[in-house]
Design a protein that fits this description.
The complex is a heterodimer of chains A (849) and B (104).
Chain A (H helix, E strand, L loop, with lengths): L6 H22 L4 H32 L6 E10 L2 E9 L1 H24 L6 H20 L3 H19 L6 H32 L40 E4 L2 E4 H19 L8 H4 L5 H10 L3 H9 L1 H6 L3 E3 L2 E3 L1 H20 L5 H21 L2 E4 L2 H24 L2 H19 L3 E4 L1 H31 L10 H4 L1 H15 L6 H16 L1 H26 L6 H7 L9 H10 L22 H4 L3 H17 L14 H16 L38 H22 L14 H11 L4 H9 L1 H63 L7 H25 L1
Antiparallel strand pairs in A: 1-2, 3-4, 5-6, 7-8
Helix pairs in contact in A: 1-2, 1-4, 2-3, 2-4, 3-4, 3-9, 3-16, 3-25, 4-5, 5-6, 6-7, 7-10, 9-13, 9-16, 10-13, 10-16, 12-13, 12-20, 13-16, 13-19, 13-20, 14-15, 16-18, 16-19, 16-25, 18-20, 18-25, 19-20, 19-26, 20-26, 28-29
Chain B lengths: L5 H21 L3 H26 L5 H31 L13
Helix pairs in contact in B: 1-2, 2-3
Classes of the chains: A mainly alpha (849), B mainly alpha (104).
Amino acid sequence: MVAYALLIPLFPLVGFLVILLAGIVRKWVTGDIRIADRLASGVGILTVGLSFILSWLVLFEVLGKGPGSAYHHAYEWLDVGFLTLWFGFYIDAMTAMMLVVVTTVALMVQIFSTGYMAGDLRFPRFYSYLCLFTMAMLILVLANNLVQLFIAWELMGLASYLLIGFWFEKPSAMRAAKKAFMVTRVGDVGLFFGMALLLGLTNTLNFVGLVVAHPDGTAPGLLEQGWLSNMGVCAGPAILTTTSPIFGVAVAGSVLLGVAALLIFCGSIGKSAQFPLHVWLPDAMEGPTPVSALIHAATMVAAGVYLVARMYPVFDFGGVLSVAGTDFRPLSFVALIGTITALMAALIALTQSDIKRILAYSTISQLGFMMAGLGCGGVVSGGGQAAAAGAAEAGHAATEAAAHAATGAAGHAAEAVGQAATALAHGAAGGEHLLHLGFTAGMFHLMTHAFFKGLLFLGSGSVIHGTGTQDVWEMGGLRRFMPKTLGTYFCGYIALAGVPFVAAGFYSKDLILDAAWEFNPVIFWVLVFTAGLTAFYMTRQMMLVFGGEWSGGPAVVQHGHTDPQSDPHGSLHAEDYSHIGHEQEEQPGPEAVPVDARPAPVVAAHDPVAGDDAAHDHAAHSHDDHGHGHHGQPHESPPSMLIPLYVLAALAIVSGLVGIPGWLPVPGAFAIYPYLHYTRPGMSTEFHPHFNPMVFIPGFVAPLVGIALGYVAYRGRKFNWAQAERLTPLQRTVYALSYNKLYFDEFYWNYVFIRPLFVVTNLLKLADIYVVDAIVRAVAMVGLVLSQVGGMFDRFIIDGVVNGVGRSARAGGNGLRYLQSGQIQNYILMAFAGVVLLVWAVLQSNAVK
Amino acid sequence: MPLPGLSSFLVVAAGLFCVGVYGVLTRRNAVAILMGIELMLNAANLNLIAFARFTDPALMAGQVFSIFVITVAAAEAAVGLAIVICVYRNIQNINVDDINLLRW
């Protein structure tokens, strides 16, 4: 079947190695570096292009074989005791979709970069990193076991680090790279422990047989075999018995499985920039814009979502924890984190002024949507809506009972109480109930988001290329100068904003809302609200970038504002952090204060992180418009940058067609569902979508309202928060909260990682001084005394003996040396006397005998 | 004339040896000392031949051995006289009392 899948990651690997060589050649052949540059981009595009073609072939082959088909091929890698590690490929519809998404976006980014990165000092290196990343991501999606996935996962982390810090001359880029690497590492530790726990529980890390059935159908997934209910009889380690004592507490195997799922989810939180660990992604925008498009928007950050989707049975079967009467499944946790992330990031995106940062927060928000979608799947007991309805019914009946009791109608009261009990039972005994849509919705949104977010980032790259700035307040009126960029950007905009029925983003977001409605109304309404926010901030961005009049570029806006004396905050900030010695090389000058917030003191009271951002932006300009210089007028980008925009714009519109809501009377509606869905054996995969106005209308209206508000507010770029004098303190606080990213960086800095570290270190320092040092000193004193005693012994006894021997030898020699007279006849005489003596002695002894 | 007994030979040799020793110990002239040494060697030769003749006349081992001793003595005399000449060239004197560089 698709044996050539092996080649898909192999091509970029070859490209990576060849381009590295090209870089070396470029160093030697200093005459014309363009040849090496062209070679590098040519090889990169060629290799990724081949992978791209093969990926589409794989997709067509998988689709041609119909839903549920899969292909599995593995080579034995390590055989350690009970564990056999494989290196291989597992391809099903989800893998095929990921392959296509990754290679498509990667190819577009490679083409785009020929224009965007032209003339860069390290052009071949950029392409080699891109190839390295593409290879890692392809290995990840093809992996047939968790170990292989983890290796690729870390390889991507490396590639991401290298590319964020690609312009490592900028301190901010260097720091951003470090931050990204280390923050994701926090999650990766969890992932690693999760893998270990899963291995301990199930004896295997292979997907086939664990979370997916063998393609032959010979071995269904371990979890799907009813393994949990039969753990006692299932062959495996002792931990699989229904309860096993760990740390002296009996823990059910299913709960341990749930713990494993949550630990694995930690990795996803880090990689996909979910709520507690999202702080690295906005900073990652320090990398070149094509990298932001490829890695930090479209593909790599989706790896965390992919991981959850791939390990879905582990999440689904993981133990249920009941807190205060509410069932809390691993998937509920995923949904919760996703929802929080979506809302939080959207709130932050409302006020950002860096075009890439707006998109970065929107990426975080959309990843939250995907997680929320995935979390709203799986199997629940009772069924959310049904249970809620049952509870309401019971409450109603109980009230009735109380009322009857008050009026003394005892018989009626008893009857009403009985009704309440029945209603409760009805709610609870809904049985196990499969939420069909969650899995499909999450993965569908992953795909559409990859296309339209890749488009938006590349479009922003085109804008940055044309204007030489990243600050949206410094743009404006670009519709005149960059009409083609505007056209493509608009496609991405309507997709992300979710304009009903015309673009992909609407369908996938609507599906997630559908799934959320099935699961939990609170999550549903939060997501609807977030969708409105998304439309609002994207409209704001569109209006600020393309609407109004050209503001004149960075120079005009930057220096037309305040004088340094009127900014009371630079000093505050400098004192605040100077003792930590953090990033002081970048003193935020007056231009560090956001343009649209300058007169509002509470907003400007930001800290180094916000201050840095603005400074970064200016450092970034010199890079991002490399060589163009500051020109009065923005200009349209070259065709090499526009063609990828056209392709992605088309995909951003049409990729939603596979997920048209099933209740629409359109042929091929909801075609994605048979290929991408999750179910448990024995549960019906049949799904009959129906029109639910309670879901559809909010999902329809929210983006429109957001767009309308955004248009009204930012029409003509007039609504500037610079008029913040007129704001109430509450409004000002809210604005500052959002502008300063809800103070996450500060919170982590002050209360979680850095400051507490200093506090702890200071405590430890005291302990060092007063305890460890004291002990060391006491030991030293004892040692000193002992060694002095030893020294005396040495001096008087040992030395005495040694010197005595020497002296006596000398004295003896002195005495004896007079025998050495030099008179040869003396010697002879003595010899003769000796002989005589000897003879005499011999004769004497003979005589005695 | 009957052959004298072994002891006569030994007495003559012993006398000769004593003369040699006396010469070596008392003479101050290095050449004279060499002559004393020659006397002692000859005394030893005489002993060898006498014992050979009286104990194992057929084997002739003593005679052969004394031939070797004579050879070695000649070489010794040559070396000794060469040293004496060297010494003389250095200090214009061959008095052994004056040749005492190798002392304490």
